[in-house]
Every structure is written in structure tokens, then in C-alpha cells.
Amino acid sequence: MDPIIQTTKLTKIYHPGKNSEVRALEDVDLIVPGAGLTVIYGPSGSGKSTLLALLGTLERPTSGEILLKGVPLSRYSDAGLSRLRRTTMGFIFQSFQLIPRLSAWENVAFPLIPLGISLTERRNRALRLLEEMGVADRKDHRPEELSGGEQQRVATARALVQDPEIIIADEPTSNIDAEAVDQLLAIFSRFIKRGKTVITASHDPLIREKAHHLFYLQKGRLVSP
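Above: the chain sequence. Below: its structure as C-alpha cells.
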């Protein structure tokens, strides 16, 4: 069986050939076997966020290849990658990136709009997930009315609302307290038990302790810790 994600000589260079050139990643060979928690860690500036952006198809590599279940992502057009993200991946961003003018349930339901799902079904799915996350009573509150932990749980519900195969999470515990970290790990555990994959960049030792697969990045390269 193919790994869910595999990279070969993955390289990302910003501003190539200019004085401002940044070699964010170089020749990264990475295998994510499948269901489980994959943690990428390393010092600030090592390329963790860049790697997640490439794996999540939010950016394209300068060179090298990414295979998703054996299929090269380079075969996809930009529109094709956008469809792939909508159906296959959920994202939890470091700063949550909730939409300020929308309520909690509307933020959770937002990724379903391009899929043509009815308002009633979008709301029902969002409310079920907010209940599972323990924040159903905050469903009508806007992001600025929520604590950091509540925002994180809303952002996690949004990542799950399409029932993706893969969650990609960039430093998901950096803005929450220890109790919220435990809750997030419990959510990840339930997701993984359903045969799903979580890929996260994290400095948090609690997350690294739970990892099924660990990768250490330093100066844009995978190295032994």
C-alpha cells in the first residue's frame, strides 16, 4: 500500500537568484505512512511551516515532488489542487484564522459552502461538531467573544467539518493553555482511530510524546535529532 504522503527531494526557494533568496527547504525526503500523528519539529525558521504549506498544497515546490496516495501533485492544475483541498484536507492554523464577522457555527460551516451543501445541512453539521468539541453553548458568539481555547476548538471543528482524510495543523497549541492542549490531543486521537492522518508542526513536548512518526527539521533539511 502506498503511503498517504511521500516527498522526494522537495525543495522550496523564495526569491531565487536574488539577494533576498531564501532556501526554506532542500531535498526533503519524507514518508507519512498513513493513519496516525506525524509531528514535524525543529527550531524557529527551520522550514516547518513551509513544509506544511507544501504538503497541504497551499504552495507549490520549487523542485522535487509530492505524492498523495501515490499520485504526483504536480499533475494537478491550481483548480484541481483547490478541489483536492476541499475534499481531502482540513487545516488548523497557528492564529486560527476565524472570520471575525461570522459566528462560531458559521465559521465551522464555511468550508461547506463551495460544496453546494444546503444551509440547513451546513448548520446541522457545524452544531454537531461544536457539541462534540464542548462549545455548543458558544455557537452564536463571534471569535472576539471566545477565549483562546474556545477559538482553537472552533478552528478544529472547521477542519473536521468536511470529514477530511488529513488534518494539517501548524503549531496548533501555541496560543492555548494546558487543558486545551489535552482536549486537542483527545480530538486528534478520536480522528486517528477512524483511520485518518494528522500532520502537525509543533514545539510542544506533549504533542511530540503522542507522535507515531517524528521528523526533525534544521535549516530546511531533515536530520537526525
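The longest strand covers residues 22-32.
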